[in-house]
From TrEMBL, chains A, B:
This is TetR family transcriptional regulator. InterPro entries: DesT_TetR_C (IPR054129), Homeodomain-like_sf (IPR009057), HTH-type_TetR-like_transc_reg (IPR050109), HTH_TetR (IPR001647). It comes from Prauserella flavalba. Residues 38-57 bind DNA. Keywords: DNA-binding, Transcription, Transcription regulation. One of its GO terms (molecular function) is DNA-binding transcription factor activity. Residues 15-75 form the HTH tetR-type domain. It holds the Pfam family TetR_N.
Amino acid sequence: MTAESAPKWRRLEPDERREQIFTCAAQLFGERPYAEVSTSDIAARAGVARGLINHYFGTKRELYLAVVKRALTVPYVAVAQLPSGSVEERTNAAVEWFLDMVSKQEKMWLAAITPEGIGRDVEVERIVDEADRRSADRVLQAMGFAEDDPRWEQLNALVRTYGGMVKAAGREWLVRGTLSREQVRTLLSTQLLTLVKDVLPQITPAPR
Amino acid sequence: MTAESAPKWRRLEPDERREQIFTCAAQLFGERPYAEVSTSDIAARAGVARGLINHYFGTKRELYLAVVKRALTVPYVAVAQLPSGSVEERTNAAVEWFLDMVSKQEKMWLAAITPEGIGRDVEVERIVDEADRRSADRVLQAMGFAEDDPRWEQLNALVRTYGGMVKAAGREWLVRGTLSREQVRTLLSTQLLTLVKDVLPQITPAPR
DNA sequence: GACGCCTCTTGACAGGTTGCCAACAAGCGG
DNA sequence: CCGCTTGTTGGCAACCTGTCAAGAGGCGTC
């Protein structure tokens, strides 16, 4: 019998261990809702003591936030520069680009737009809002609005409401299959065009 | 000293007590996310023993479901018979009515449209979907579509996507204050009108 | 006016979860 | 080979939830 000094556990670099726990947590949060994933589950899958999770992430909630944040950041990274044609052409191109992007990142995108866990949490809301605002900025830029427009704040808010429709349409298309890609394209193009041509121009500069 | 037999607690009719607890729960769920409202909090506000909540509603989750359900149902029950004028008049009336309703039930409505408080719960999802579908039905009826239209399923889905915008707009208006009621009115009216006049007519009968 | 009973209401208990922290030990540097 | 840094463990205390038998409010009856 070789006197193996069998270590009960292996010591890892902080970043490495942190990433390992993060990965396991992401898997579990993808499988079950937030409340049904206990830190014990995460620790078990990572083959680690439960306390270590708190050591690295502080709180179960903070760990969840980290997961959501990464999931939301990835999808909206590279918005290709849109063609500089008429408004109609640009809206169509934007919608088409969007549909392609979603097609490729289906699961990722769906997971990101339905933070399936902690809800109405200030921090989660902030993270999601940040992503929404950034994509609304891109839409406004693509539609030719000047970035120093005094109405920017409200224009952005209006585009964000359009984002609500986009998410809902994505769910109808991808999850429920009640709408075809073509129907979604028509819907989103038409509505975006109306938004840009009929609604946005009516907005008066910020009230104060 | 009058020998007052001071009762430690008052005995109420089941329906009455149930309603009282329900109301307090609705308030709290409107103030904080699901996870941050303990049954103790609800019991405290209702001036009642915690166990009584389980007696009436079984589970915290069931109580929450009841709250969400009512919040989603009440608003859409009495869609007053809309005036039978032009499409424009009817959309305006519908949007205006909706804004009034929301103003009155602000907290309740907000809590209901962001039921992520419990996280991708199948039951919650079902309830929300049910309500969304029902209100979409009402919108279609009000806009003069025949209930046996073969495209009904898809028309309904399209209106549901509009619902996504409605919810987003409500949040911008009530929660963040980035949009005024007037702006929301303009947005929702214009977009609904476009949906009804430009998008819906393009939908071809169900593919199979 | 007093009593009895129905059932509404309470309070305590068990199981489970989370955050914290002091002690332990892996494994590199001297 | 030994000591020290620090990654890691395991148990503790607080809290929350669902259950249940016991207690008491108050209506109906005599």
